[in-house]
Amino acid sequence: MTICKALTIAGSDSGGGAGIQADLKTFQELGVFGTSALTAVTAQNTLGVHGVYPMTVVAVEKQIDAVASDIGVDSLKTGMLFSADIIEAVALKIKEHHFTNVIVDPVMIAKGGAPLLQEEAMEALKTKLLPLALVVTPNIPEAEAISKRTIKSEEDKKEAAKVIAALGVKNVLIKGGHDEGAVTYDLLYDGKEFHTFTGKRIDTKDTHGTGCTFSAAMTAEIAKGASVRTAAETAKQFIQAAIEDGINIGSGHGPTNHWAYRQRGGC
Ligand SMILES: Nc1ncnc2c1ncn2[C@@H]1O[C@H](COP(=O)(O)OP(=O)(O)O)[C@@H](O)[C@H]1O
Ligand SMILES: Cc1ncc(COP(=O)(O)OP(=O)(O)O)c(N)n1
């Protein structure tokens, strides 16, 4: 039996809904062996982020080396990277280990407003990491920050995707969770064509970690050999089920249900 392996390079969410915890749960649910390189510890729950404690650059590098040299990496995703120093170190490790299936979730700000990426790290994200990525998965505020464009319409989303693609990333997937309307529109630009993935918008406050979970599902599918487009289709179904079959945890923005997709018969 071939075991596919995915690495997440991200921050820890003590509340279990986002970050490394969401990524590893999603990998497991999709039948992929998950490994991790921790970039920061956050003291976090459904009410918000109560503390951020970054790892040293050496600690991040050593974790990536340990996983790459022994276990192997079929795909990897990045989440909260926090600083320019960590971004630069991760970019160097991607090159050193010749990782190709790189999914960048450009995590910037948590739902409650806490910064998870230092402002001065944006340039490193754009110039060092994005050119190495197979896919980048910004939400709308992140796509606006990277492209320096305002997004108010589907046409704006397309223009922003083209601007981001010009930074050297092969596929840009702008997630539509922050839009309004009865339907969510996630837009994929592959450098030539646009593809849209839609879902019924669920009226719930329990959407903590949706972005992490969506990009982790894409990463797992890509580890198994799926194309970017097929991986996005599966990830959309995975997150739709996870939000629809909500679990009531905590008193703020609760996590999604990571086992819903499997319980519905997906795998
Ligand atoms: N209320 C919702 N109902 C259905 N899908 C949602 C909802 N909120 C977010 N999504 C979906 O979850 C995924 C993550 O999107 P988004 O919330 O924009 O990311 P982030 O958590 O990074 O802000 C996307 O596929 C988006 O369409
Ligand atoms: C440790 C950590 N990493 C990432 C996030 C952001 O997760 P995201 O999926 O964008 O979800 P929300 O913060 O929007 O709920 C995080 N909060 N913590």
From TrEMBL:
Pyridoxamine kinase/Phosphomethylpyrimidine kinase domain sequence ranges: 13-257
A Gene Ontology term for the protein's cellular component: cytosol
UniProt entry keywords in alphabetical sequence: ATP-binding, Kinase, Nucleotide-binding, Thiamine biosynthesis, Transferase
GO BP, sorted A to Z: thiamine biosynthetic process
Domain of life: Bacteria
Pfam families documented for this protein: Phos_pyr_kin
Pathway assigned in UniProt: Cofactor biosynthesis; thiamine diphosphate biosynthesis; 4-amino-2-methyl-5-diphosphomethylpyrimidine from 5-amino-1-(5-phospho-D-ribosyl)imidazole: step 3/3; Cofactor biosynthesis; thiamine diphosphate biosynthesis; 4-amino-2-methyl-5-diphosphomethylpyrimidine from 5-amino-1-(5-phospho-D-ribosyl)imidazole: step 2/3
Catalytic reactions on record: 4-amino-2-methyl-5-(phosphooxymethyl)pyrimidine + ATP = 4-amino-2-methyl-5-(diphosphooxymethyl)pyrimidine + ADP; 4-amino-5-hydroxymethyl-2-methylpyrimidine + ATP = 4-amino-2-methyl-5-(phosphooxymethyl)pyrimidine + ADP + H(+)
Listed EC numbers: 2.7.1.49, 2.7.4.7
GO molecular function: ATP binding; hydroxymethylpyrimidine kinase activity; phosphomethylpyrimidine kinase activity
NCBIfam families associated with the record: HMP-P_kinase (TIGR00097)
Family, as annotated: Belongs to the ThiD family.
Protein name: Hydroxymethylpyrimidine/phosphomethylpyrimidine kinase
Species, as recorded: Domibacillus mangrovi
Lineage start: Bacteria, Bacillati, Bacillota, Bacilli, Bacillales
